[in-house]
């Protein structure tokens, strides 16, 4: 590859072969849970116990033997060996990119292994379950900790840095994302508008497939190493 800088957007599909469920597949997470019940601020206000239970179960799975797969590792190699800049922007809340070795990484939808205080915003690492009766150190009060996740209706993280990188990149690659959720779904148009080449890697063409200049289809664990080599 011969690009000055590269922005890679990843979605649930890159972690699917590590054993984590995607959202919108027939057996996806949204099949078992209504989005409005577990992934909105209103849901957390209404039923924090249910929301904590949803994220506790996913945290337990992540810490219970899930490992990065060849696609995560290939992206870490790309960042390490590529002469230009590589930024990975992930919509995923798992830590598989960092465990594989990625360092220039933005978790735009938050991180499963952190909770934060709803009053002060202070973040705390969390390795086990979180509950409504837990106290935060900042307020020493119960019930203020929420998963450090960007839910529907909330602002994704580090958007200024992401848009700056999209405007400056020469190659934009989206891996394993369905293109249903904004603002991430709009990144391809921003990058293309700024003159970048755009490439989609997915099992099959996503709803934005025709917006990309090129699509390569197959499992991420095969397509990403092929791209990087
Ligand atoms: C494989 C594979 C394999 C499988 N190999 N591939 C218009 C503009 C802007 C906003 C909106 C808009 N219209 C509506 C909105 C609001 C809303 C939104 O987008 N709604 C849509 C449903 C229409 N967006 C928001 O509310 C966002 N905030 C916001 O917009 O703030 C205002 C703002 C304004 C202006 C600028 C900036 C901001 C927040 C969105 C938060 C999303 N949160 C979630 C849940 C929390 C995290 C969690 O619990 O894990 O994030 S939703 C869920 O979807 C999760 C994901 O990160 C996200 C994306 O899903 P993803 O990764 O694409 O997964 P899937 O399952 O959909 O697809 C998997 C893909 O992998 C498929 O294509 C498979 O084929 C593929 N695949 N196996 C390769 N082995």
Structure, explained:
By secondary structure, this protein is α/β, with parallel strands linked by helices. It folds into two domains: 136 residues, Rossmann fold, CATH 3.40.50; 82 residues, SIR2/SIRT2 'Small Domain' (2-Layer Sandwich), CATH 3.30.1600. 34% of the residues lie in helices and 20% in strands. It contains ten helices and nine strands. The protein is globular. This is NAD-dependent protein deacylase.
Strand order of the largest sheet: 3-2-1-7-8-9
Computed over alpha carbons, the radius of gyration is 18 Å
What proportion of the residues form beta strands (DSSP E)?
A: 15-25%
Write down the secondary-structure element order: EHHHHHHEHEEEEHEHEEH
Q: Separation of termini?
A: 9 Å
Outline the low-pLDDT stretches. none
Structural class estimated from helices and strands: alpha/beta
Active site: 109 (proton acceptor)
Enzyme class: transferase
GO molecular function: histone deacetylase activity, NAD-dependent; NAD+ binding; protein-malonyllysine demalonylase activity; protein-succinyllysine desuccinylase activity; zinc ion binding
Pfam family, one: SIR2
